[in-house]
Write a structure and sequence with these properties.
With about 170 residues, the chain is α/β, with parallel strands linked by helices. It is built from five helices and seven strands, in the order βαβαβαβαβαββ. It has a seven-stranded mixed sheet with strand order 3-2-4-1-6-7-5. The two termini are about 30 Å apart.
Length: about 170
């Protein structure tokens, strides 16, 4: 069994119009949501064996605040290639995860995460699936389980959505 958690970065600031998109920081609301997600993950006992994080500042800041709030020290790989790469590229990256890793947290962006989640999750909790169909707001955390022994076997429709949490709706 493999478990994938997808975390969209929290709300970012657009206060500085001259700042490149990759360098945008979190807004106050985003910092609060990122910490909330960290506490939520800790409360659910989530402990991924690997964290893959986009190098965009808003993704890295989201992860840092979530890890701090969760009191976690999970292994993290920061990769520029996760920044607005598209769902197919994210799936390709996931398929290259070593099989000894059972659970992964991927911190990234939309529309990539939304597209990836919709592509992978063909079943699961009806309310969670309905939420996923509506969108993937900032700081949303989704969990998808796969009944496969290898990450190489991830395929469209092969996952079961086991969680979909939007901080502002809780």
């Amino acid at each position: 069994m493999k478990t994938l958690h997808l975390l969209r970065h929290a709300k970012s600031s657009r206060d500085d119009p001259d700042l490149p998109d990759h360098d945008r920081p979190l807004a106050d609301r985003g910092r609060e949501a990122a910490a909330w997600v960290g506490r939520h993950m800790a409360g659910r006992g989530l402990a991924p064996g690997l964290v893959l994080c986009s190098t965009a500042r808003r993704a890295e800041d989201t992860l840092a605040l979530a890890l701090s709030a969760a009191g976690a020290g999970w292994p993290v790989e920061r990769e520029r290639g996760l920044y607005l790469a598209g769902a197919p590229a994210l799936l390709d990256r996931l398929r290259r995860i070593p099989d000894e890793v059972g659970s992964v947290l991927l911190v990234g962006h939309n529309p990539d995460l939304h597209d990836l989640a919709r592509d992978l999750a063909s079943s699961g909790d009806g309310e969670a699936l309905a939420g996923l169909r509506q969108g993937f707001p900032t700081a949303t955390l989704a969990g998808i389980e796969f009944d496969v022994p290898s990450w190489r076997e991830l395929a469209a429709g092969s996952g079961r959505l086991v969680g979909y949490t939007v901080p502002r709706k809780t």
